[in-house]
Amino acid sequence: MTNSYELLEALCRLDLPVRERDPWWWPNSGSYEVVVGALLTQNTRWQKVEAALGNLKSLGELSVDAIAKLDEDLLREAIKPAGFYNTKAKRLKLLNQAIGDKFGDFDTFRLEVDRKWLLGKKGIGEETADAILNYACYREAMVVDAYTAVLLRSFGYEFEEYRGVQAWLIEGLKHNDAKIRELFPTEPKAQIYALFHGMIVEYCKRYKRGREVDVSALGV
Questions:
Q1: Euclidean distance between CA atoms 140 and 188, whole angstroms
Q2: What span, in angstroms and rounded, lies between the C-alpha atoms of 107 and 111?
């Protein structure tokens, strides 16, 4: 494998389940639920996040106003399945307050927020910021996670930092735009980034064994 387009093409051939629940892969994309889920999923499995999100929904709608009004003790109890619930509850409250103070509501946040603003908030790192930008705001942000790093390492690619992995993924797509349009004729670039990341995750969930990923199914 010499570039990220070859990886994307190989993943597409496998028909991985990236659109079964949502056209952008992340459940309920384009909603405030993604912002909450992106923070809760840090250092835990998605199944536990879904349990926490279910608890929050049982307390009312997932919105900036609803989280602002929610008692912090109730918030901690609701998100307990996602782990580190004291820290996550505090960070979620702080982020929610910052969003309310700066943007007022989620629709304005989606239109106006930028990466720099997100990275300036407690508990928001590069992966979380890009997940929010891509899956909640539908921006052209390529998400990189631990699955991405281990998959690329299986092909002999080692990167020292997040931005290096991200740049490699984006560069291969830029240089093969015409071919990508054959794979995704109508999808905006942001959605292609979203599905690419989703395919990487779904592939690794299926083929990761310990610290290694079996890449033979990709045929590249």
A1: 9
A2: 7
Which residue, chain included where needed, has tokens 């709608």?
A: 61
Mean pLDDT of 48-75: 96
Q: What is the mean pLDDT of residues 32-48?
A: 97
CATH number of this structure's domain 4-20+142-218: 1.10.1670.10
Domain extents in the chain:
4-20+142-218, 32-136
CATH 1.25.40.390 applies to domain 32-136: no
Using only C-alpha atoms, the chain has a radius of gyration, in whole angstroms, of 18
pLDDT at position 220 over 90: no
What value does the mean pLDDT of the chain take?
Answer: 96
Mean of pLDDT values over 183-193: 97
Predicted TM-score (pTM) of the model is 0.97
CA distance 20 to 5: 23
Which of 171, 214, 169 shows the shortest CA–CA distance to 195?
169
Residue 210 has pLDDT above 90, yes or no: no
